Amino acid sequence: MDPQILKGTGVALYTNPLAGETNTDYGSFRATILNKHGFKAASNEISGWPGYARTALHALPDLASHLGIAALYYKDESTRFGLKSFKALGGAYAVFRLIQNTVASQHDGYLPSPQEILSGKYADIISKMTVTCATDGNHGRSVAWGAQLFGCRCVIYIHATVSEGRRAAIAFYGAEVIRVQGNYDDSVHHAATQAALNGWTVVSDTTYEGYRDIPIDVMHGYGVMSQEIVEQLQTSPPTHVLVQAGVGALAASVCATFWLEWGVTRPTFIIIEPERADCFFRSGQVGHPVIVTGDLDTVMAGLACGEVSPVAWDILKTGINCYATIADNHALEAMRVFAKPTGNDPKIVSGETGSTGLGLLLAAQGNTALWKALGLGPDSRVLLIGSEGDTDPTIYKEVVGMTAQEVLA
């Protein structure tokens, strides 16, 4: 029996017993993985790309009042580079870094700028490169976009339950998209095998033995979003941050950025997973990564992951204050709440994965034990990471009853 596990209707919480280091500095070990230099380098590069713009951070005072907290913020990644997801920052940045390093290896270590690469100056090298990955949608779209933008070939693998809309969205950017049997983790292993056979390079957001540098580039790219949040909330940092888990790359990036920025006063950090794909929740209970098997079927497609990324775990094992899982219906309800707000709060287009933070709040509201375990109260300032917009417009309309355009009209 684990007395730290609390359950409600479609929600479960586990308080992390390893979070004793919360009130400490970031530390030298974590800095070997994610660090200020890596985040700054990513920000310097990505902010110069065509179409870069800081995404909105919405304040939701009426919803905050309804929940009984002081403030609620939503970082809206639905407009990021036109890809509708924060993933645009990671996969494409890793593709750029790979291309940059490949060119450098053939030009005496010279690292070309994005402008030089975009000019076609090194097309003879780049056109011979092929990048690949497995995806449930958003990461693959980012890798495909980056490959198209910078001029290399791209092959993307998707698993059995990835929607046709998400497949088409990846193919739109010129990638060859191949569907394979099994779940997300099966497709990850398949992509790695095919890359080894064909001499391609895997651009993944999860690490495994012998594969570390590219996923760390991905996570540093994600840090652009978190640094924007720091700038947007500089006068009133959050007391709580609710972040989607997946393999942990986004969560680790957010956790690291805020830990480096705010040190011992960093926010309480809560991660959220679907109840059918809860690899972090289970890993937290035993203190080391465990694999969740099965079809991992959930409407929160971007979180249908059964294996924790090892380097993300190194950041998060003591960085997480509370693990949470929610049922699909809570994420869907949150989508509708965002689209049809009461009062004067802005209308928000949030996809199934982007709505998980609010889904947790709605699931826990009214349950005194759960609310207390989350550390929430009338003085809490809560940040939600709106990781995606309507990345599958067909599913979005089925859930909300309107298209994204109709919501925002």
What features would you describe in this structure?
With 409 residues, the protein is α/β, with parallel strands linked by helices. It has two domains: 5-86 and 215-408, 3-Layer(aba) Sandwich (Rossmann fold); 91-204, Rossmann fold, CATH 3.40.50.1100. It is built from 18 helices and twelve strands. The strands form two sheets. An eight-stranded mixed sheet has the order 1-2-11-10-9-12-4-3, with helices on both faces. Helix 4 runs parallel beside helix 7 (138-150), helix 4 packs across helix 10 and helix 11 runs parallel beside helix 13 (310-316). It is globular.
Alpha-beta classification:
alpha/beta
**On the 0-100 scale, what is the average pLDDT?**
94
CATH class categorisation of the largest domain: Alpha Beta
Kindly identify the CATH topology of the largest domain. Answer: Rossmann fold
Shape: globular
Integer count of domains: 2
The tally of beta strands, per DSSP, is 12
* Spatial strand arrangement across the major sheet: 1-2-11-10-9-12-4-3
Radius of gyration (CA) equals 20 Å
Proportion of beta-strand residues: 5-15%
Biggest pleated-sheet summary: 8 strands, mixed
Ends apart, CA distance between termini: 51 Å
SSE arrangement, N to C: EEHHEHEHHHEHEHEHEHEHEHHEHHHEHH
Low-confidence stretches: none
Portion of residues within helices: 40-55%
* Tally of contiguous helical segments: 18
CATH architecture of the largest domain: 3-Layer(aba) Sandwich
